[in-house]
Design brief:
The chain is an all-beta fold and about 270 residues long. It folds into two domains: about 150 residues, Immunoglobulin-like; about 100 residues, Immunoglobulin-like (Sandwich). It is about 5% helix and about 45% strand. It is built from one helix and 17 strands. A hairpin with an 8-residue loop joins strand 2 and strand 3.
Length: about 270
């Protein structure tokens, strides 16, 4: 399996369309004297990509000379040890949004509320929203602008991580020229793994990864040993090789440590 760099993961994950939700209310009371505000409503953390979501809620009301309302949301991201950078590849962000009701904002008591979520957040990283507000007069001229930044949604890497350790190869108790290969599988991640398999390609096998052994559910830090019996190999020949989660069905913190080869020739 191919290792995936953190930056590539984040760029790809944020290309998924965000879930949108907008609401408008007339006559809502403001919590303070400010004409607009925004806050991070929720930050869902999960080992699953589809369940990692940041939600921002915004509100604005008319000002004396500006009754046309518009809001813009931008997402900023920070990788570990790096500076905040603006994401420009998230659909639905970076554009000015006005109330669907064109009359909303024409009365002093009106309040325009807007909520938006961005899902499939890659990890590890932090995310925050920069929310801009704009008021225009009846002719469309901008009379006021302001912006606020929300608190950060910190997304730690909670994914599991199946790791194959060194292979112990020894003559099989079954005798002959057979070799027993003991392969250690460990969960080095921060959440449990589901049941998985280790696939093996032993010397002389016509079909790669045809031999399979089940791997039980592993809690973080737990390990298990799976065994295969088959021929050893001569010096210079391809050694026995093993791969856990061969179908790449599990999203892991590190995809580069799922394969291992035995020493050849095996004892």
């Amino acid at each position: 399996m191919v290792a995936r760099l953190a930056t590539a993961l984040i760029a790809a994950a944020l290309l998924a369309p965000p879930a949108l939700a907008a609401a408008s209310e007339r006559g809502a009371s403001a919590a303070s004297g400010a004409p607009a505000g925004a806050r991070l409503v929720s930050c869902h953390r999960s080992p699953l990509l589809a369940a990692r979501v940041a939600v921002v809620g915004t509100w604005m009301r008319p000002v004396a000379t500006g009754r046309r309302l518009a809001v813009r949301l931008d997402l900023w991201q920070r990788l570990p040890g790096a500076r905040w950078t603006q994401r420009g590849d998230v659909p639905g962000l970076g554009a000015w949004i006005s109330p669907s009701d064109p009359q909303l904002g024409s009365r002093p008591a009106d309040v325009f509320k807007y909520r938006q979520s961005v899902g499939r957040l890659a990890v590890p990283a932090s995310y925050r929203f920069r929310v801009s507000f704009r008021w225009s007069d009846a002719a469309g001229a901008v009379v006021r602008q302001t912006a606020v930044t929300t608190a950060a949604c910190r997304e730690p890497d909670l994914r599991p991580d199946l790791v194959l350790g060194d292979v112990q190869a020894a003559p099989s108790p079954r005798g002959g020229a057979l070799v027993r290969y003991d392969v250690t599988v460990r969960n080095a991640g921060r959440s449990p793994t589901p049941r998985s398999v280790v696939a093996a390609t032993l010397p002389g096998d016509a079909t790669p990864n045809a031999r399979r052994r089940a791997v039980p559910r592993l809690q973080p830090g737990d390990s298990t040993v799976v065994s295969f019996t088959g021929p050893g190999c001569a010096a210079g020949a391809a050694p026995a090789s093993f791969v856990v989660d061969p179908a790449n069905a599990l999203e892991e913190a590190d995809e580069s440590n799922n394969e291992v080869a035995a020493t050849c020739p095996a004892p």
